[in-house]
Design brief:
The strands form six sheets. Strands 7, 8, 9, 10, 11, 12, 13 and 14 form an eight-stranded mixed sheet that branches. A three-stranded antiparallel sheet has the order 4-16-19. A three-stranded mixed sheet has the order 5-15-6. Helix content is 48%, strand content 17%. A hairpin with a 4-residue loop joins strand 17 and strand 18. By secondary structure, it is α+β, with helices and mostly antiparallel strands. It is found in: Cytoplasm.
Length: 544
């Protein structure tokens, strides 16, 4: 009797890609190493920049790891994990994104031979989690507190943290100038240190040193109708009306229809519209406001009306600028003028419209509730100013973190070398596979000082050997790379400092990324739709 075969079970759609097993883990490791290669040379004071051109032809020049990874159009699902981890580092502490990508990729590179030899990924993950616990415990012991009662001393410490961050940026030559500016900006915020209360405006032209910090709000003059040139450009102690009202004659809506039987009726409609506008303008004038800002347009009739009565007005003000003005000067953003009074008007000591480069800027200084600042950046090319903005963002985040978490560690690869030594010593106290994996983890941490040497053109092997020797000595825990003199130095004494929360978060993020990537042993890719297949075929045809 013929035995019937079981029919095949079709579980997934036709065209689904399915890869699994050891080769899948290795494929993910290789993809993450490729991502790290993209940002490897950007690390440190001698790091190089990357030029990224998108599909629209827009160019970005940057050495900020988060920006580069964000701009890259990565399609490999495993590599995207590393990009997300780097972004989380940027969101959490604002700096150290390149370090996270490099350390995570190096962790994976060192454990790749174990995976190839058949060590189960869960064994590796367990060892990494144990190694991370040792790192975090040592961080607590190694971190140096800088709780200073002397404000001047505390300010100097914060400036040194900012300078360390700016050393690896495009504005490294002006790091003293910008470090002072960044610390001034952060120190003027309230206890919560909100990032959105620091406005950064970019104005092409001039030198970097012409950048300025405004203790208040400044924004570019908005589009104005005829009559604005007759308005005063400076006030002392003005009251400020913040509105979300359209102060102009409304255009008829599409398909709107009004039927009138005579010219007199039409005239009454027109007169009513004008009367509504003039009633609004009169209420604003009688409220005592001298500066009128609105999110919506302020038309030519209103502009001329305010000019005749010595009021200043600006329409189409961006929502962010309007809110920051409200935070600094008080008052409220109103959608009606019926209850405009002292209770909801803002006030500042000085208002001025001033020329910056080829543009006019409105300045509100001496605000009654001055918890906001504005940085106006000057510079040459647009890409240069944008990269300066990204550099300052990192420095601002670092100073905020240093204020909130008052402990620091030495940079320049010093903390990584010390943690590497501690892990290597610990690995000798355990047996079996765990010893080899923790030793590999220890070796991986040396990637930071090694890459700092490679990017500066130094002999990495020689300097790392000398660093290992110094870290084996009792007084050598803060020795790292001295990029300026092609040597090693005590980076704590050299004031190369970073908030410990940055490095701590980088270690956690890199370890988590490694464990996550190692735990994936199968990728199931859904079949592409007919439209995607047609588009892919067309692009292949065009390429040929």
């Amino acid at each position: 009797m013929m035995r019937l075969m079981n029919p095949p079970i079709i579980l997934l759609k036709d065209g689904t890609e399915n890869t699994q097993g050891k080769q899948q883990v290795i494929s993910n490791i290789n993809a993450c190493q490729a991502v790290a290669e993209a940002v490897r040379t950007t690390l440190g004071p001698r790091g190089m920049d990357k030029m990224i051109v998108d599909q629209k032809g827009e160019m970005t020049i940057s050495n900020d790891g988060a920006t580069i990874l964000k701009k890259l159009d990565i399609v490999h699902p495993g590599a995207k994990t590393l990009v997300d981890i780097a972004r989380s580092q940027d969101d959490e502490v604002g700096d150290g994104t390149t370090s996270v990508a490099l350390i995570a990729a190096e962790f994976l590179k060192q454990v790749k031979p174990f995976v190839e030899e058949g060590v189960h990924p869960q064994v590796i993950i367990r060892s990494f989690r144990k190694g991370l616990q040792i790192i975090l415990k040592q961080f607590h012991e190694l971190s140096m507190k800088f709780s200073e009662n002397d404000p001047q001393r505390k300010r100097e410490l914060l400036e040194k943290c900012a300078m360390t961050t700016l050393s690896s940026k495009i504005v490294a030559h002006q790091k003293n100038f910008f470090a002072k500016m960044v610390v001034d900006a952060v120190m003027q915020l309230d206890e919560l240190l909100p990032m959105n209360m620091i406005g950064i405006k970019k104005e092409k032209g001039g030198a970097l040193e012409e950048s300025l910090l405004v203790a208040g709000v400044a924004f570019k003059k908005t589009f104005s109708y005829a009559g604005f040139e007759m308005q005063p450009k400076t006030y002392e102690n003005p009251k400020i009306a913040l509105l979300n009202i359209e102060l102009e004659l409304k255009a008829e809506k599409d398909n709107a229809e009004i039927r009138v039987d005579s010219v007199e009726e039409y005239q009454r409609v027109v007169d009513a519209e004008w009367q509504i506008l003039y009633d609004k303008l009169e209420k604003i004038w009688k409220s005592g406001a001298k500066v009128v800002l609105s999110k919506l347009p302020i038309g030519d009739v209103a502009t001329q009306y305010f000019a005749d009565r010595d009021l200043f007005c600006a329409g189409r003000v961006q929502d962010e600028d309007l809110r920051r003005t409200m935070q600094a000067c008080g008052g409220a953003i109103l959608t009606t003028v019926s209850d405009l009074g002292d209770g909801n008007l803002g006030q500042c000591e000085h208002f001025e419209e001033r020329q910056i480069g080829k543009e006019r800027y409105n300045f509100f200084t001496g605000c009654s509730n001055s918890k906001t600042v504005t940085i106006i950046l000057r510079g040459g090319a647009e890409q240069f100013i944008e990269e300066t903005e990204r550099s300052l963002h990192d420095a601002i985040m670092i100073v905020r973190r240093a204020l909130k978490n008052d402990s620091i560690v030495a940079g320049g690869g010093a903390i990584e070398m010390e943690l590497s030594r501690i892990l290597r010593d610990y690995s000798r106290t355990v047996a079996g596979k765990e010893q080899l994996i923790i030793a590999a983890m220890a070796k991986s941490l040396e990637v930071i000082p090694r890459q700092l040497c490679d990017n500066a053109g130094f002999d990495a092997t020689d300097l790392l050997n000398r660093l290992r020797k110094r870290h084996a000595e009792p007084d050598g825990k803060w020795f790292g790379i001295d990029v300026r003199h092609e040597d090693i130095s005590d980076n704590y004494k050299a004031c190369v400092w970073e908030p410990s929360v940055v490095k701590r978060n980088a270690m956690i993020a890199a370890s988590e990324a490694t464990c996550l990537i190692l735990s994936v042993d199968e990728t199931i890719k859904a079949p592409r739709s007919q439209q995607e297949q047609t588009a892919a075929a067309q692009s292949m045809g065009m390429a040929m």
